[in-house]
Design goal:
6 strands, binds iron/sulfur cluster, 10 helices, Rossmann fold
């Protein structure tokens, strides 16, 4: 089979191009980058396999619209056959425009399911006024989505978290949770019954903002529930943006670091057996350099692979 996940020579199919607005050179580059980065994440973490039925969780925000859009593009050129089912959970927040997603998804021609569950009323009833509603709300949402995934015979649940979400989570865990722990590109769900994937793992948020503007996604505002976005996450987001402004390339370097963990140089006794360390007599550049200062050769990002089947 000559189809590939990542192929710089493959352009958007002609029929697809007809439906899209005319795109300039920069937007064309952006589209190629998005497809390449998503394809790379799928390969690196073996996210999508032959016969998968992937549930794409679409909230109405730019990230999930972008995820669905790019997965649809890749579906036609992927080396494996898989299905996509867009799923939206209408939580009955006041003012939620429930016609927008069905209309958009119908127009797109993608199989979809809208699950309507009034979790908003439950959360409002249970959580005292002034307290944050997010933790109960997201727990309820998770449970519903797991059930829907079972009903739809889904094999993978795809979420629209991107590179910046993953870095923010890493710093949130470090600053407020005392853990070196990020947001995984692929993991079994907490109920043990589903595989969750994040195909936008390599994608920068600013690219998704540009792509959403170009594609004119019918974005639904995310403030309908009246709950404030997590303040700590906002602060971390501002910190990262500030760093990137002052030190361009820092975000990329930190993101690469998440893929280059050296347990022997940390202090987690569960990850490295410090107790039984023995000399080897074999020189090792990764060994301890005593008083020498660390050299910081810029790590290269994992090389792009061309996978042909
Ligand atoms: S912001 Fe609103 S919809 Fe989102 S998790 Fe919090 S309460 Fe739920």
């Amino acid at each position: 089979m000559s189809a590939v996940w990542i192929d710089k020579e493959i352009d958007t199919p002609a029929q697809e191009r007809v439906k899209e607005p005319k795109i300039g050179r920069e937007t064309h580059k952006l589209e190629k980058r998005l497809c390449r980065q998503v394809g790379q994440a799928i390969i690196d973490f073996n996210m999508i396999e032959e016969g998968d039925r992937v549930m794409v969780c679409v909230s109405g925000g730019k990230d999930s619209f972008g995820l669905l859009d790019i997965l649809l593009k890749l579906q036609s050129r992927a080396p494996v056959k898989f299905e996509l089912v867009a799923v939206n959970l209408d939580q009955k927040q006041p003012g939620f425009p429930d016609h927008i997603l069905p209309e958009y998804l119908k127009q797109l021609g993608v199989p979809f399911h809208i699950e309507t569950q009034d979790t908003y009323s439950i959360v409002k009833k249970v959580v005292p006024e002034g307290k944050t509603m997010c933790s109960l709300c997201s727990r309820l949402r998770r449970g519903i989505l797991y059930r829907v995934a079972d009903e739809l015979k889904i094999t993978k649940i795809a979420l629209g978290h991107h590179r910046d979400d993953m870095l923010q989570t890493f710093f949130l865990n470090m600053f407020f949770g005392g853990k070196l722990k990020g947001m995984p590109p692929k993991l079994v769900s907490d109920d043990g019954g589903h595989i969750v994937i994040r195909p936008l793992a390599n994608v920068a948020e600013k690219d998704l903002v540009r792509w959403a503007a170009h594609r004119q996604f019918p974005i639904i505002p995310c403030s309908l529930c009246g709950s404030q976005e997590n303040l700590q996450r906002q602060q971390i987001g501002n910190m990262l943006r500030d760093w990137e402004k002052k030190h361009p390339g820092r975000i990329e370097s930190m993101f690469t670091a998440l893929q280059n963990v050296v347990p022997s140089h940390l202090m987690d006794r569960k990850r490295h057996n410090f107790t039984d360390i023995k000399t080897t007599g074999v020189p090792n550049p990764e060994g301890d350099k005593m008083f020498d200062a660390e050299e910081f050769a810029r790590p290269s990002l994992p090389a792009l692979q061309m996978v042909q089947i």
